[in-house]
Amino acid sequence: MNWQGWAEIALTLGLAVGIGWPLGVYMSRVWNGERTWLDPVLAPIERLFYAAGGIDPRKGQSWIGYAGALLAFNAVGFFLVYGVLRLQGVLPLNPQGFAGLSPHLAFNTAVSFVTNTNWQSYGGETTMSTLSQMLVLTVQNFVSAATGAAIAAALARGFIANKGQDVGNFWSDVIRTTLWVLLPLCVVVAIVLVALGVPQTLAAGVTAHTLEGGEQKISLFATASQLAVKQLGINGGGIFNVNSAHPFENPTPLTNLITAVSINVLGWAAFFAFGRSVLAKKDVRALVVAAAVLLSAGAGAIYVTETQAPPAQVAAHVDASVNMEGKEVRFGAPSTAAWAAMTTGASNGSVNGMHSSLMPLGGGVTMFLMQLGEILPGGIGSGIAIMVVMALLAVFVAGLMVGRTPEYLGKKIEAREIQFSMLAVLVIPLFMLGFAAIAAILPEALKGLMHGGPHGLSEILYAYVSTTANNGSAFGGLTANAPWWNTTLGLAMMFGRFAPIVAVLAIAGALAAKPKLAPTAGAMPTHGGLFVGLLIGVILILGGLQFFPALALGPIVEHFQALAFVAQR
Amino acid sequence: MTTYDIEAGEGGRRKAASLAGGLSTPILARAAKDAFLKLDPRKLTGNPVIFATWIVALLSTVSAVAAIAAQQSAGFAVQVSLWLWATVLFANLAESVAEGRGKAAADSLRAARVTTKAKLIIDEQAGTIIPTPAHKLVPGELVLVEAGDVVPTDGEIVEGMASVNEAAITGESAPVIRESGGDRSAVTGGTTVVSDWIKVRVTAAPGSTFLDRMIAMVEGADRRKTPNEIALAVLLAGLTLIFLIAVVTLLGLGKFSGVVLDPLVLGALFITLIPTTIGGLLSAVGIAGMDRLLKVNVLATSGRAVEAAGDVDTLLLDKTGTITFGNRMATEVIAAPGVRPDAALRAAVMASLADETPEGRSIVELGRQQGLALEAPEGATAIPFSATTRQSGLDVDGRSWRKGAVDAVYRSLAIDPKRIPAEVMAAVDRIARSGGTPLAVSEDGALVGVIHLKDVVKPGVKARFADLRRMGLRTVMITGDNPVTAAAIASEAGVDDFLAEATPEDKLRLIRAEQSKGRLVAMCGDGANDAPALAQADVGVAMQTGAQAAREAGNMVDLDSDPTKVIEIVEVGKQMLITRGALTTFSIANDVAKYFAIIPAMFVVALPALGGLNIMKLASPQSAILSAVIFNALVIVALIPLALKGVKYRAIGAGKLLSRNLLIYGVGGLVAPFVGIKLIDMVVSALGLA
Q1: Catalytically annotated residue among B183, B212, B291, B318
Q2: Which long-range contacts (C-beta less than 8 Å, at least 24 apart) are formed by B51-55?
Q3: pTM (predicted TM-score)
Q4: ipTM of model over 0.90
Q5: For the segment A257-279, what is each residue's pLDDT rounded down to a tens digit?
Q6: Which residues of A touch B472 (CB under 8 A)?
Q7: Neighbours of A63 (CB within 10 A)
């Protein structure tokens, strides 16, 4: 640990929040249909979509209509991806001549990209044709991100409405977020990345002549463009198997900084956009602070664990003040720590170092950040939405202590909101722990493990935690391309994505129907340090504590065993 | 806090002794018995947390019995089972104790039910009367109630006037006058006519009289969960499910890790994690809230109304009796030009000697304070107030004194309004603008001065309203006065707004306007014309002395008929919500320590490295688990008094209140079980229990 390291972590995290702020204002304008400087270019294109789809963008939908449109849109997306992946062998733009995917891998991958998870049971450069990468996966990278943003927009409308009916128009939200926010930003970032040395080509690759006189095929792909949306859309699925640890995806410390900041920037932007849209900037700032505090604590914790001398190396009298296993030398511990926290705090899942090689507690932190429900800052929109659910729970539990039935942002919190909030948070442990517990005793599942003992348990746990949270990063060592894993991980992604989405939309609908209450001095203050502290406490106790027993059997016991191992020497 | 009149009617204090008594031994004994009766699982299904505890207690008992049958060591299993049953029993006990006071009150009310026969009038002209049992009377029938009779059922007086002792209902033994016509025509079954006679038209169907409703209310017979209670129950059920997932999945995860998990220990972990504390105390808190209202002599028709009281944003307060004493009092006499001040005062007192109204007496009192003690001379003729002259006074030996409305006195003296002395005009104007009432005084046909009658604001109300404002409550004063007078009193009392020259329709309109802005409104009223507003208000407090329509429209009835009570009702509502929140927060915060007690204990045999998590240094795995279970059970008992008494409500502003309660119940909830479990562990290991 040194101050440069801390400064680098602070800079990376801070930049994401700092850039997210103005972007959030812009995003809010896009959601609200306010004027933006891109209107002259994009408005005609937008109208084209509406004309083609026969959509009246001004017609609001009830929460059920909105959820129905969202699910239908994603179902169509799923079948499209599934079809293309199965048939890629006979489809064009397949220079490497890859075959179609197996049914379970195609299912897993289709769910993965539709749900914004980007869990990859395959190695990208050895499995996916250019058509598959560009046509279906990249398209989903955009629209799955826009789907997430849409639920935050709908939730915001629920808070704003006064005895209202509708929560907005799903089609308009998705189209506008894609056109106005994701596309322009991705174009800018992609061009910057190309300038910094990231490849962008339709060629299959180049053939290199090695010093031994052999030949090596090096895949290239349209990496920069896909990298941009992989990060900005909080998708995380790499072109290359090792993701952002690959020199083509992340050649220099500068690209590392840009792509790391890109992981969180739109997540934060959605926080600020939500705050502006519901006219509650102060209250949402408290949510930002709570999330930033937890994320910084996570990054700091990983930085601390990774800069401790690994006990086994100490025991072997190897000089090692930093755990460099699984880290890129060009990045080092601080960059890896910041990235690991940011990618697991958001539902991104890209990596610039291997999480299974983190020290046990460091690996445990990455799991814990995902178990909190991807709210730090989480995916675009989905993060703030679940954060608001946590705020509702915090206000509900503690808000009574001011002597009023709880209200948040001018809406009373009653049985219906709590019911759906609990549904949203219940799905998380159900799929994370439920599938992990079954896999832990199922011989069919255990075949995929590389390790036994606590680290093996962490591999299982991490897989279901990552997929349920729609993160997509993997704890190396697990070979997941097998029917059991592909199927159950696919289900975890599906329920982990759509159950909370439907719950959030139901909350939006319930809130919309309520009268908007005038703020009074008697209501519980939902900004300021006290609320931030309360919220952090509720996130940790309600959102995280139930994972403590499982973590105790995985990373925590591994940590104590490592210590005990050294002590015995 | 200083005591001001506004705080609680004296009747309220008296009533506290009669209706909602303290926790006597018989109440506790009955509660203990009820706690066992409530072990019937059918009675627990409404409470998912305690129901889950019941199931686990049963399962652990089965395992303990099985262990005994197999002649294995069962001491640990037996102890865990016993403490799990104790957890359920303690939760039941909390509810029974809370119900106990209501049941005792209901018993005393039942005693007031009429057992004698009513005098049913079957032919009004002939006056034919048939003795009929009270419970056979149907609405529309006429009954005669004479001195000494108990009013058989609720009704409206159609003829006659009587003084009625309503102690059976209100606890207030001073009789009140009830008469036909107007807002005081309602009589309540169970009260006693002390003098005279009345003819009463029955308005209540058998079984739904005010007394019946009252018994049902205090007994909590049709207690339904309030909206907030339902939401909280959903949260608790959700948490129970989450912890069920966390515990059940340990079977698989543990097997992978080579940990053999005793189902008994898993059950113990589950029970200690689920929010048994608030789950066990939730209904007691609600019942205790109703009970606290009963203590201040207010009957709420539902817990929902009590809850709404805590949420009230706007309080509509009647000026008279709530903000001011209700009687205007003389504060000064201003002499007309050329008249000596003491002569003017003397004239004012002379004009008031025969006036028995509070205003008149206050003028005599003002004179006495200034050393002018006069008695009405022999042979004096009192000139009473009349609507046409609008003045009153005294005539004696050819001399006359009058006082009255300023314009009326001018007219009777035939004074040209243009020639009124400027000083008098100025005084009249000043009095009117300050919210007072000017009275002109004349002596022998000459204007001698002006009396300043003032509506005196009760001491302390201003501070009280400031407290309310800090808690986010707006106070609106309702008065029939003109806007000038109203504004002056409003500013003196420190209310946020006022409604002058208010008609019942205005009140209704104001309530609707406030509600449309998303505010909850509380008001009190007694007249039949208040009924629509009472029904519209979120919290409508009807006065027991008021009209039948008002009593039915409101969702609360104040037995003391004290309009200031609405403030106390709001505080009771807030207190109930605070208590519920505090216990929930405490219960959830407790979980952290329980994890640190049980997780290492569960795993340490197979994975000795996890001993590092045993930060409390508990003696052995078994004693750790047992201590957590014991703590979990005892904390319910320890918190019963708090649940019944309620967390103190302080008017210090929401932010301060939150930080204070978070510190006590949130941080306290984190720390307390670490200390408690450690202490219990020391006892358990010292006694060799585990």
Answers
A1: B318
A2: B52/B240, B52/B244, B52/B270, B52/B271, B52/B274, B53/B84, B53/B87, B53/B88, B53/B91, B53/B271, B53/B274, B53/B276, B53/B279, B54/B88
A3: 0.88
A4: yes
A5: 999 999 999 999 999 999 999 99
A6: 404, 520-523
A7: 26
